[in-house]
Amino acid sequence: MESEMDPLKVEILPDHQSSPYTFTKPKSNPKKSIILIIVASIVSFAITLGLLFVLAPVLLSGWTSSFRYSAVIDAGSSGSRIHVFRYWIKSGKPVFDFGAENYASLKLNPGLSAYADNPEEASVSVTELVEFAKGRIPKRSLKESDIMLMATAGMRLLDVNVQEQILEVTRRVLRSSGFKFQDEWARVISGSDEGIYAWVVANYAVGSLGSDPLQTTGIVELGGASAQVTFVSSENVPPEFSRTITYGNVSYTIYSHSFLHLGQNEAHQRLWESLHKSAANSTEDEIVTDPCTPKGYTYENNSQKHSSRILAEESRLTGSLQAFGNFSKCRSATFAMLQAGNENCPYKHCSIGSTYTPDLQGHFFATSNFYYTSTFFELHEKDWLAEMIPAGRRYCKEEWSKLKEKYPTTKEEYLLGYCFSTAYIISMLHDSLGFALNDGRIEFANKAGEKEIPLDWALGAFIVQTSREHTSDYSGKSRKMVGFMSNVAKFKV
Ligand SMILES: *[C@@H]1O[C@H](CO)[C@@H](O)[C@H](O)[C@H]1NC(C)=O
Ligand SMILES: *[C@@H]1O[C@H](CO)[C@@H](O)[C@H](O)[C@H]1NC(C)=O
Ligand SMILES: *[C@@H]1O[C@H](CO)[C@@H](O)[C@H](O)[C@H]1NC(C)=O
Ligand SMILES: *[C@@H]1O[C@H](CO)[C@@H](O)[C@H](O)[C@H]1NC(C)=O
C-alpha cells in the first residue's frame, strides 16, 4: 500500500528539467579525488540498490509510472490563480494528492475583470500563468494535459459582451499554449458551480465524500464579489437552489447559492457608494459619518497610492463624509444591506435578502475572507464568532494612524477593510444565517483534513472534471465516481 500511495519518492526528473547533479572539476589533489570517486561509487551503488528495492513491488505489480497533468485557472475578482495538478491512474481511477510534489499554484493580480476597458491586455497575465504551468509539466506530457479557465463573480458582474471579449483573448492564449484545450473550457461558471466545487474539495479533504449525506460538511465562503452558501439539506429545496451530486452509489442533494454583490469587497464598495450619495446630498454643515472606517482616515489623499477599485471609487467622495468607526453602527449598516428586499421573500424562509435559505444542517467550514479576518485578529478556532465582536469593536474605534503604527507590514488597503469585515461577518453569519456565537458546528479554515488540502474550489473543479473523464473511459466496467447533475441545467464541461 505504501508504495502505491507514495510512488513519488522515487520520481524520475521530468525531462525538461536540467539535471541537478552538476559536477565541477576537482581542483584538489589526486588522492582526495580517488577517495571521492570511491565514496561516490559506493554511494551511487547504495542508491541504485535502494531504488531497485523501492521500485520492485511497483514494477512487479505492473504499475507504470505515468503521471498526468492538468491545470485550472481560477479567474477571480481580485486576481487570477493557476493551479497545476499532477495525478495518476490506478485500477482505472484517478488518484489525487495535493502535496507539494503534485500541486502548485500561482496568483497574479488584478483579476480579468480589470481588463474590461482593454480586453487585449488580459493576454499578458494569462500568458504568464501558462508559462508557470509549463514549467511544471514535462514537454512530452503537455499536449495530453487539460487546461481550463473558469471565471467567477468579478466577470459575472460585467456585461456579457465584455465577458466574451475577455474570454476570447484568453482562449487565444490557451489555444496556442501547447496544452489540450477546447474553447468551451474557458468560461464564466455560475456561483452555485463554485459552491459545489468548494463543497466537493472540503468533503474530499475530510474523507466524507461517499458517506452519509448528513455527515458531510457545508461551506460558507466570503469571496471578494460574491458569497456562497452550500450544504446538504433534507428540506424540500426549490429546484433553482438544488443540485445533485453522486459519488459511488451515494447521492447528495445540496442547497447551493451564490449571493452576487455580497462578497466582502463588493459589499464594502456599495456601502461607500451609498454613504457618498447621502454625503453629496447633505447640506454643507451636515456631516455624514462612515461607521465602518476608523476615524482619522482621510478619503481624498489615498486614491493615487492604490490601484484597487474600492480606493479609486473613494476619490469621488466629497469632504462631507467623515470616517468615524463604530462597530455597532457598522454592524447595523451591513445587516441592513443583507436584509434588503427581505419583505419580498417568496419562500418559507429567507435569511439573506429575498433568497431562500434552508435551516442550517451539519458541520461547516467558513472560508476565504472569513478565514483571513479571523487569522488577522488571531481568533481561536473554538470561539471565533464570539471573539470577533470585541475584536471588531476595538479595531473600529481605534485611530487610523494608530492602526497603521500597530500593523506596519499590513497593506493599507487591507487595514481599511477590517472594521467593515468584522461587522459584516457577524451580520452575515450570526444576525442573518443564524449561527449562534458559540456554535461549534462552524469553524474558519483554508485547509482541511490530515493532508491539509487547500479549501479552494478550483481543486474541487479538478476533482470533478478528472473523475468524470475517467468515468467515461471505464464506464463499462467501473461504477461512476463523481457524477454531477443539476435540476436546472445539465452540467457542461
Ligand atoms: C454502496 O455500495 C456498497 C457496495 O458496493 C455498499 O456496501 C454500501 O452499503 C452502499 N452504500 C449505500 C449508501 O447504499
Ligand atoms: C438625494 O437627492 C435627490 C434629489 O436631489 C433625491 O432624489 C435622492 O433621494 C436623495 N438621496 C438621498 C440618499 O438622500
Ligand atoms: C491630505 O490632503 C490635505 C489637502 O489636500 C492635506 O492638508 C492633508 O495633510 C493630507 N493628509 C495626509 C494624511 O496626507
Ligand atoms: C456607537 O454607536 C452606538 C449606536 O448608535 C452608540 O450607542 C455608541 O455610543 C457609539 N459608540 C461610540 C464610541 O461613539
Automatic annotation (TrEMBL):
Superkingdom assignment: Eukaryota
InterPro entries: GDA1_CD39_NTPase
GO CC aspect terms: membrane
List of catalytic residues: E194 (proton acceptor)
Ranges annotated as spanning the membrane: 34-60
Enzyme class, first EC level, given as a word: hydrolase
Binding site residues for ATP: G224, A225, S226, A227, Q228
Keyword terms of this UniProt record: ATP-binding, Hydrolase, Membrane, Nucleotide-binding, Transmembrane, Transmembrane helix
Molecular-function GO term, any one: nucleoside diphosphate phosphatase activity
Pfam family of the protein (one): GDA1_CD39
Single biological process term from Gene Ontology: nucleoside diphosphate catabolic process
Entry's EC annotation: 3.6.1.5
Catalytic activity, reaction form: a ribonucleoside 5'-triphosphate + 2 H2O = a ribonucleoside 5'-phosphate + 2 phosphate + 2 H(+)
Family membership: Belongs to the GDA1/CD39 NTPase family.
Record-given protein name: apyrase
